[in-house]
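Section 3.1: Structural characterization of target chains.
Under the original work plan, the team committed to producing a structural model for every single-chain target entering the pipeline before any wet-lab resources were allocated. The record below documents one such target. The sequence was received from the expression subgroup and is listed exactly as submitted; it comprises 509 residues.
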Amino acid sequence: MDASLLETKKPPYGIIVILLIGAFISILNETLLNIALPSIKDDFHVSMSTVQWLATGYMLVNGVMIPATAFLIQRYTVRRLFLVAMSLFSIGTILAGFSPEFWVLLAGRIVQASGSAIMMPLLMNVMLTSFPIEKRGAAMGLFGLVMVFAPAIGPTLSGWIVEHYSWRMLFHIVMPIAIAIVVIAFFLLKDKKEKVEIKLDTLSFILSTIGFGGILYGFSSAGDKGWDAPEVYITLIVGGLSLILFIWRQLVIPVPMLEFRVYKYPMFTLASAISVVLMMAMFSAMLLLPMYIQTIRGISPLKSGLMLLPGALLMGLMSPITGKLFDKFGGRVLAIIGLTITIVTTYFFSTLTLSTTYTELILLYTARMFGMSMVMMPVMTNGLNQLPQRLNPHGTAMNNTLQQVSGAIGSALLITVMSNRTETHATNLITSATKKLTGQESPAQIAALKEHLGMKAMVEGINDSFKVSVCIALVALILAFFMKRVKPNREEISQETTKQTFVKQATEN
């Protein structure tokens, strides 16, 4: 794909538009179901820990599939990969929409995820190979629009649909769009690419699946089951050991499934580190705010979603602008400004009370999204710009995999902090309140007091979790000061092209 796209005089806008639409609905679907989980739980009469697998399973499949996308992108054409990915996504959507049992719905989500996992690395790689270095910022800004806008509007759309219709409508709306994209792509999507005969290393794929799958499952389960649960620490140990073996194997085999030598490029390594830290911090608002809004404040799902909408819209509008600013000024300035805004707003989120107004929450969340819109894509693009063309599929796969893993780690860490601190605050508050009791209180008054103290303890636990998030974001800010604007070595690019031609001739001979 790399050579074919580079040979074209102008970027393949038709291919990019089709890919963008496909990626948009597949990413939108990732967060679309979150607000509907309580309704699905009631419909199928399953526990909350069981229904949570609709979100956890989706993330696990993404984490397992994404490392293989570097191989798939090199081996197959954009057309073939896109058609397979969107077909899988469409089949999963149909299965989920008409599921008579919970296990069918879960199977549909897993099939959906297997298609969705291919979409993001494929789209990012097409963007990187279609535009010259000096115009990549604007192009990746468009990519960022899809990456952040789709999951951000998911809760709002989901809240409105669940409040007015059945949760099945979430799948029925997406279904015709997904099928239409498959049909359009079948007739319009064309790209020239010579066949590359590389084989997938089966042992690498098995080790990758156990490694990333074990780590994702372990961290995802830790928040619910606790770190001392055998199910958590055994899967983390097995996953960690498998991942070490996977990395070792990639460094010794001639054609690795995922090229870890991308980390010899310092700006890519720095970009990965900042992205990992930022993803962990970002999950604080995504996880903790819905708990605060719905559990403590009793705000409806629709109003919860609407609270996130201005931030989502601003982030979507900022992505192309940020891309152009990146082309002009580089990523360092944008990252420092954006992370500073993110840290300040996250700190204010650590001062929530039982009476924080709805307007304050909207303004804070919108400002936080504005800050984050200036960080993620500029940092990622700056890092990818340093990679030679042949390593683009590996760089994009590595970034997407790390985002899944760091998201799971961030979720587990912040939920654990919140749970532990809530228990501590509850004990302290109850002890303090008990000393002030006169013994004249009725059972109803004592029950009301306990409920009030429980809510107050949970707010304090959420605040403590946001404080941890501030510290995590500070690490990202410190790292951002070491960013340098990448100016690719034209000679290196020329050498890479010569090397690819030599390898191709040697293979043919």
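The radius of gyration is 24 Å.
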